[in-house]
Amino acid sequence: MKIGIVGAGLTGLTAGYTLAKAGHAVAIFEKESFAGGLAAGFKEQGWDWHLEHFYHHFFPSDIAVQNLLSELGLSQKLFFARPKTSIYYNGQISQFDSPLSLLNFPHLSFFEKARSGLATLFLKLTPSWRNLEETPAAAWLSRFYGKKACEILWQPLIESKFGSHANEISMAWFWARIKKRSSKLGYLEGGFQVLIDKLVKKIKEEGGKLYLSQTISCSNDLNQWNKFDKVLFTTPSCPFPPARKKIPQMRGALNLILILKKQFLTDGTYWLNINEKGFPFVAVVDHTNFIDPKHYGGNHLLYVGGYYPQDHRYFKTTKEAILKEFLPYLQKINPKFNMFHVTCSMLHVNKFAQPIIPANYSKILPQFKTSNPKVFWASMSHVYPWDRGTNYAIELGEKVAHEILK
């Protein structure tokens, strides 16, 4: 078969690799000048490794990505470490990544900590999400963690991620977040771009084609696709409705990258969740508290990220204006931080970064097949109950490729 694929993110690349390996003629079209989607990276002068536009890491339970790395001969590039995760609340950074750190958390009583620990253990030991999906996460968390613990630990994060939809989000989605979470995190020597480059190379070796900087029309007119037997869209939406027609709404993401002369989170925290009300961002990720700065010319690399409605003014704002707006909040976290520490800044945005997952989402979960028998669709909206991520993008690419091969 001749198969056209729209989108060269990891879902499109994995599907393309799987189909090309099976002997089919694959052509992948990407609107950007680079492949890899949200996992793509860049390299500055003097750097040995790439850095992703949006922060990324693996979990030990990410089997799909580990299997693909093994098949591509990249297993030796994968490594795991135990970076520090913390919460910023009430003007204070508190480590929050283990039972011991929960016991030491200063903003809850012993009873509230014990209750939170038991609720987390219950979610960890619960084998399936199906009995949870009818319940909104906000209601479940308030009931079982307790109102105060919920308001401190979870409510700020869910509201920052989903905004006005926070009370609609399914508990199945939250269960998946807890089920997946681990103290060890993985990364690739050289950055995620190593995986992307290898996939592109393998696709080309199998006779596949990759066309970058291609403006793709998602019109219902398929005349432009007549030369293909099958077409796969890996874009956030598809011109042909899936078998279940209700498409999830999406939230956008913004990521400000700061290249710094000095370490920002001086206590060694890698991932800092912002649980303090009023902040314009939800996460501060000190990448070089996880990966040695020597791979980036000795620079310290900081991500400052958040989720916003697709019509938010930030998506039309310059990086200079956003950094100016973020600066007072960064100085609350680190009072010694100032603009003289910043050697360079970069802004990356994506308006289709997070599906909104309501209760009973499985009943409206889109299918791969669409109203046109030659067109298939696979996107972030298909990975439920899991959250978006590299592992599930790869798994999704493999699944839809096998569906096409049927």
Key descriptive features of the protein:
406 residues; alpha/beta; Rossmann fold; 16 strands; 21% strand; globular
Task: Walk me through what this model shows.
This protein has 406 residues and is α/β, with parallel strands linked by helices. Among the domains are: 2-56 and 191-247 and 366-405, NAD(P)-binding Rossmann-like Domain (Rossmann fold, 3-Layer(aba) Sandwich), CATH 3.40.50; 100-173, no CATH class. It has helices spanning 10-21, 63-71, 99-104, 110-125, 137-145, 147-162, 171-180, 193-205, 319-333, 390-405; strands spanning 2-6, 25-29, 41-42, 51-52, 78-81, 84-89, 92-95, 185-188, 209-211, 230-233, 250-260, 269-274, 283-286, 300-308, 342-355, 375-377. A 7-stranded mixed beta sheet has the order 7-6-12-13-14-11-15, sandwiched between helices. A 5-stranded parallel beta sheet has the order 9-2-1-10-16, covered by helices on one side. A two-stranded antiparallel sheet has the order 3-4.
